[in-house]
């Protein structure tokens, strides 16, 4: 980052960011307090889990991954979805989306922070975390897909934190960012976004031990669901920004995002249908997990209501967005987005992870639902993600607004 | 990073040659630094708080502090291995008031272990399960077991169709029994999955875990097609008088919470030329254990003269565990 001996240097940048984040209306202060309470809930949960070990969760030797890894998988998709704003705004020079690309990038950073926290709280021995660090530990690269995932997620975090930081800092100083300093990284980040989600899919897809996951459609379907759920979440954030700040977002932008979301959601449903067809047209021994998910096995049917809810609201949300009966009325657009997000969250989270592990390779069937500790920690991590997004977005939008007022509409 | 990959590849090769031979690689500055920091820190703590504190004696705390910074077992020199063993033995002395012996015997030349299970003979008494639990210091609180015995109806062939929870007089009419444990695959998916190289295949074919290096991510458990791995969800608990004191670093030494463990073909016994605890305990002689490279061994006789099969051969994991029918 360039440092200049003007009044607006790196030090005043940090100072202003802190100041802007702490000051705000009473509503904003209450919102921050709520986020802090959520995070404290998570801290409490983690203290309990740290004392008792992972026996504080409802995971077992059969369901060895549960709610944490489910949320991790969903959020990797949300992080990857920033590319759906970056690609049109930087490559196709879409001026509308250019205005909100920073918001997409901030949502990606928040999602990545949540992803890494979810993996961390899932570790049996978090203090031994340094065993993964190349140089002092032993990273099993390139053999282990988990090692790949650690590398690509950290790389993507760096890209999505540093590119906007550079641009915002330039705008803060009232300067136009120099293209050659950041444009190459934009191109890298586009490929990288696809990579983080493909690698995360390969994590599951690469396990012949689990027929439910060992499916070549996993990677593409991860991308399709991510490019539906991610922009949907970004739209919600935009809605909040639009109604709570003076950074106004044009209805055109919502419509463009809606089209992206609908396209991805339709492709996602098509692939889901293809998977369901394969499992149920001629059920084999390998369809047991799908049977467990959709209909329950031997009386263990805890996931059945979840998956049917997920599929129903997924279809409903997609239809509402596609036919758009209420035009751009946000009162109707937002509930449709929420339906779609929740549907994908269930289906790609707990509806993907748990059936992969049940029945166990020895044919044993059990039920799983998260324990209180798991719920507390999850709430805490989600609070942390919202906090990170807020802390980054508030100053960024103030700077962007000032810059825009200074130089006129973005060229 | 690139250096690290290079070094890892090199180690893998060396280890396949002979994993017991201490590594001749230069110790990295970091480990040295960390170790000396640890010793200094430990000493400072020792000096600071004499007597028994929250963490037991201050000496035990200092030793555990040093243990935290130790490196991967396969990267240790012989001296480092001796040091960590003596620390672990001393910690057991201080914290449990118990004399244990931790062995680091490596693999022998021309030895590759294999196992065969006689489906006709097994009558489901589960003596093997009990012997295994006791020999390998398995957690009694969560009732961890490496071996599962499945009661099967005639006509079934795969344990996932059988009943692993039977509780009645055995043998039951019209049924037969199949034992399942870690099959020590020749192409183990768990080893490929581990992000920290905490699990690997020894030259004598046993897949082991460096318990102190495992971070507990449980990816290996998802990767295993035979459900051969167990996680310590809670701190393992064993009645003091039942602890097996003859231990192996890669075998039955006491584990802590948060890491993955598995059957090691009783590495602490078999590397001393003994049978596994399960094979020794079996009252019907259904379990055959031996050296696949020894043409006169019983296991070779079984493989050459009986009709044998393995589970899930389509996955290409090449288990070193065969089933046969008399």
What keyword list fits this structure?
heterodimer; A: 411 residues; mainly alpha; Formate dehydrogenase/DMSO reductase fold; 14 helices; disordered N terminus; B: 326 residues; alpha+beta; Alpha-Beta Plaits; 2 domains; 4-stranded mixed sheet; two-stranded antiparallel sheet; 16% strand
Quickly describe the structure:
The complex is a heterodimer of chains A (411) and B (326). With 411 residues, chain A is mainly α.
Describe the structure.
- The complex is a heterodimer of chains A (411) and B (326).
- By secondary structure, chain A is mainly α.
- Chain A has a single domain, classed as Formate dehydrogenase/DMSO reductase fold.
- In chain A, α6 packs antiparallel against α7, α7 crosses α8 and α8 runs antiparallel to α9.
- The longest helix of chain A is centred in the last third of the chain and has 36 residues.
- Chain A is globular, with a radius of gyration of 22 Å.
- The N terminus of chain A is likely disordered.
- With 326 residues, chain B is an alpha+beta fold.
- Chain B folds into two domains: 98 residues, no CATH class; 226 residues, Alpha-Beta Plaits, CATH 3.30.70.20.
- In chain B, 31% of the residues lie in helices and 16% in strands.
- Chain B has ten helices and 14 strands.
- A four-stranded mixed beta sheet of chain B has the order 12-4-14-13. In chain B, strands 1-2 form a two-stranded antiparallel sheet. Chain B has a two-stranded parallel ribbon with strand order 3-10.
- In chain B, β1 and β2 form a beta hairpin.
- In chain B, α2 packs antiparallel against α3 and α3 runs antiparallel to α4.
- The longest helix of chain B is centred in the N-terminal third of the chain and has 20 residues.
- The N terminus of chain B is likely disordered.
- Classes of the chains: A mainly alpha (411), B alpha+beta (326).
- At the A-B interface, α6 of A face α1, α2, α6, α7 and β9 of B.
């Amino acid at each position: 980052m360039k440092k200049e001996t003007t009044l607006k240097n790196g030090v005043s940048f940090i100072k202003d960011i802190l100041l802007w984040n702490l000051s705000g209306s009473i509503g904003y202060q209450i919102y921050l307090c709520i986020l802090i309470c959520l995070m404290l809930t998570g801290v409490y949960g983690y203290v309990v889990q740290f004392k008792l070990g992972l026996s504080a969760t409802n995971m077992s030797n059969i369901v060895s991954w549960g709610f944490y890894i489910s949320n991790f998988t969903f959020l990797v998709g949300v992080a990857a979805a920033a590319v759906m704003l970056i690609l049109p705004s930087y490559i196709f020079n879409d001026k509308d989306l250019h205005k909100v690309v920073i918001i997409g990038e901030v949502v990606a950073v928040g999602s990545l922070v949540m992803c890494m926290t979810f993996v961390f709280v899932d570790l049996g021995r978090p203090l031994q975390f340094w065993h993964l660090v190349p140089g002092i530990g032993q990273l099993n690269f390139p053999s282990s897909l988990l090692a790949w995932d650690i590398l690509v997620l950290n790389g993507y975090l760096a890209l999505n934190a540093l590119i906007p930081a550079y641009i915002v800092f330039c705008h803060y100083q009232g300067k136009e960012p120099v293209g050659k300093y950041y444009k190459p990284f934009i191109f890298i980040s586009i490929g990288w976004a696809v990579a983080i989600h493909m690698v995360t899919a390969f994590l599951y897809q690469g396990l012949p031990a689990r027929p439910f996951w060992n499916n070549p459609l996993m990677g593409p379907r991860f991308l399709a669901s991510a490019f539906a759920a991610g922009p949907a979440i970004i739209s919600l954030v935009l809605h909040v920004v639009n109604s709570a700040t003076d950074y106004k977002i044009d209805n055109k932008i919502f419509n463009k995002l809606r089209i992206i979301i609908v396209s991805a959601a339709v492709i996602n449903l098509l692939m889901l249908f293809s998977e369901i067809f394969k499992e149920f047209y001629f059920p084999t021994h390998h369809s047991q997990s799908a049977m467990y998910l959709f209909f329950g096995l031997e009386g263990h049917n805890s996931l059945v209501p979840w998956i049917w809810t997920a599929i129903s609201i997924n279809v409903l949300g997609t239809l509402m967005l596609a036919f758009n009966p209420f035009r751009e009325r946000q009162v109707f657009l937002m509930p449709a987005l929420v339906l779609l997000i929740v549907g994908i969250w269930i289906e790609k989270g707990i509806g993907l992870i748990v059936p992969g592990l049940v029945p166990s390779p020895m044919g044993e069937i059990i039920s799983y639902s998260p324990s209180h500790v798991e719920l507390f920690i999850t709430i805490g991590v989600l609070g942390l993600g919202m906090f990170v997004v807020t802390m980054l977005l508030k100053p960024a939008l103030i700077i962007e607004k000032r810059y825009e007022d200074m130089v006129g509409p973005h060229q | 990073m690139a250096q690290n990959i290079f070094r890892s590849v090199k180690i893998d090769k060396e280890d396949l040659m002979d994993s017991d031979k201490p590594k001749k690689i230069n110790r990295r500055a970091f480990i040295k630094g960390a170790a000396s920091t640890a010793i200094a820190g430990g000493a400072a703590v020792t000096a600071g708080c004499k007597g028994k504190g929250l963490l037991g004696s201050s000496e035990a705390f200092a030793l555990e502090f040093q243990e935290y910074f130790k490196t991967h077992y396969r990267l240790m020199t012989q001296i480092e291995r001796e040091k960590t063993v003596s620390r672990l033995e001393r910690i057991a002395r201080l914290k449990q008031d118990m004399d244990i012996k931790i062995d680091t015997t490596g693999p022998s030349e021309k030895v590759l272990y294999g196992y065969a299970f006689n489906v006709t003979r097994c009558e489901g008494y589960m003596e093997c399960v009990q012997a295994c639990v006791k020999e390998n210091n398995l957690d009694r609180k969560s009732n961890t077991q490496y071996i599962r015995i499945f009661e099967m109806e005639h006509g079934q062939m795969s344990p996932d169709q059988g009943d692993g929870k039977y509780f009645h007089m055995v043998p039951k009419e019209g049924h037969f029994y199949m034992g399942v444990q870690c099959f020590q695959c020749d192409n183990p998916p768990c080893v490929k999955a581990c992000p920290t190289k905490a699990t690997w295949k020894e030259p004598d074919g046993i897949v082991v875990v460096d318990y102190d290096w495992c971070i507990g991510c449980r990816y290996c458990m998802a990767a295993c097609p035979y459900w051969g791995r167990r996680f310590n969800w809670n701190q393992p608990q064993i009645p003091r008088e039942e602890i097996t004191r003859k231990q192996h670093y890669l075998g039955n030494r006491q584990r802590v919470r948060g890491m993955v463990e598995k059957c090691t073909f009783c590495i602490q016994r078999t590397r001393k030329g003994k049978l596994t605890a399960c094979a020794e305990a079996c009252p019907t002689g259904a379990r055959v254990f031996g050296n696949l490279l020894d043409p006169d061994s019983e296991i070779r006789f079984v493989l050459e003269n009986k009709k044998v099969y393995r589970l899930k051969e389509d996955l290409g994991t090449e288990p070193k565990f065969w089933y046969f029918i008399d």
